[in-house]
Amino acid sequence: MDTIKGLLSPLTSASSNAINDTVLVQKLVVIGGTVETARRMTVSAWNGFVDSFFLTAHFSQEDYPYDWYVICMLYDIATLLNSDGKQVDALALQGVPSQQPAWGRSREFDITTRSISRHGLTQSTSGDLEDEEEESDQVLDGRRKRKGDGDYPQFGVVARNNDILKKLVLEAKREYEKDAEHRVHIFMADTSYGCWRWNGARQKRPMSSIVLEPGVKDMILADCKDFLCSEDWYAERGEDKAPEIVLGALTFNPTGIPFRRGYLLHGVPGSGKTSLIHSLAGELGLDIYVVSLSSKGMSDNMLSTLMGNVPSRCILLLEDLDAAFTRGVSRDEKSTGTPTGSNGSSSSSSSSSSKSKDSDNEDGSTLSLSGLLNSLDGVAAAEGRLLFATTNHIERLDPALSRPGRMDVWVNFKHATKWQAEGIFKCFFPAKNDKPTASESDPVDAEKVAVSKRKRSTHVVPLLSEEEISELAKRFAAAIPENELSVAALQGYLLKNKTRPRECVEEVAGWIVSEREMRAKLKKEKEEREAKEKKEAEELAKKESEANKKTEEAVIEV
Ligand SMILES: Nc1ncnc2c1ncn2[C@@H]1O[C@H](COP(=O)(O)OP(=O)(O)OP(=O)(O)O)[C@@H](O)[C@H]1O
To answer: Where is it mostly found (predicted)?
Structure first.
């Protein structure tokens, strides 16, 4: 106290005494510093004291627990934390049997109680929770990068023991997995960073909603399932069944079959190629990793890195395979596989080759066919994945790209047949089910079904009897010309009439006429535009050649 008085006394007697300004300033600084330090120490001590009662978990967007946390926020946490015996047994949860088939396990993540620390929770793609120090490796790996700038939501609880956090995260995980059973996760290739970005989770699409010619869906589904269960078979074929060939440092096993399978879905636009892949992913419980080969910045190295980073059990989707090489895909002896020719033909002229390379470099894409082939089945390519490639122009693909071993199963998608038209009509207008189902006969289940139906139907659809729907579907199919309109076009028409099944059939003939007229008009416009462009190009070339001629004549005169 005396010290403070001593320090302050000069202030009070300021008017009477001659004060040394410098000393006064120094004293004020010392007083201020002391007070601030004392304040900070008090606050820090208080925070430390309060924090000793709290545990805080940080959820990074790059980690799977982030998803679980978000779901958990939607879930009633009060239910989790109340003490009426509903608390989750963490150890029991670890033993929850999986609902996923064996090949879908890559989507499951085990939580180990050892790994939850007071510092935070992170999770690697391999599934174990790890301490945050290891996070940088995971980000480098890049599989779990997503949109967003990496904000860290936090969750704190008043507790000294971290059991409550474990329970919370485990319950969140369980809720998340329950939800994920109905969704397909989509990851997109990010060519800026050479990583996969999570692009959202879509509701699974039932296979029954895809209308293809009889047997096609079943064939593909059975083939995929068979492949996913055949790892041992492939491995056995890779064992020493035949003498190895040694070429320098490399050893080849002639009977080794890489554990990969490729499907080439080709055909007209809007025929269900992409929809089928999404539906298959849902059925098989796999995530989809999408690469657009024509995207900016795509290069051989980039593709190889991306391909090497897909998990072993997933669907790898190469969309619009032909668009990667917009001028067609071809390999000639002189080129390294970069696209050549302007119309899908394989031109070996060096000028066209160099032109095409220039234009590739303009948009930052330097992907070559050789690079694509290497990343599909090179040493670094992931095993166990299902490769799906789609294209509208199979004729533009190099045979090397579509050969068996790279694309084992080819499926041709055509315009809608009458059979498909009937099927899609029935998908749109489900018949009224007169007899109660087994679950509906149970009053509790019946209530649940009624509630879910109410939730689903946001518009009034008249439910017709099975016979009437069947008859309408037949009439609809009879009016649809075979192999002329895409299924997507039919879907568009049905969507417009989703609440008017009877009128939809009555008006379909008129719609077909208008569709044909519109197509003819579009075709005519396209032809006129092309003719105009051709004429302009010819005139330009003529003017250029005249100008060149004049310049040459002028040079000769000089
Ligand atoms: N066979 C089909 N069964 C059910 N729906 C279909 C079918 N074909 C197309 N559709 C519908 O048409 C729309 C477009 O289909 P999708 O994107 O799968 O066609 P695509 O063949 O992949 O087209 P593109 O080649 O232009 O990418 C989707 O909404 C889908 O529901």
So the answer is: mitochondrion
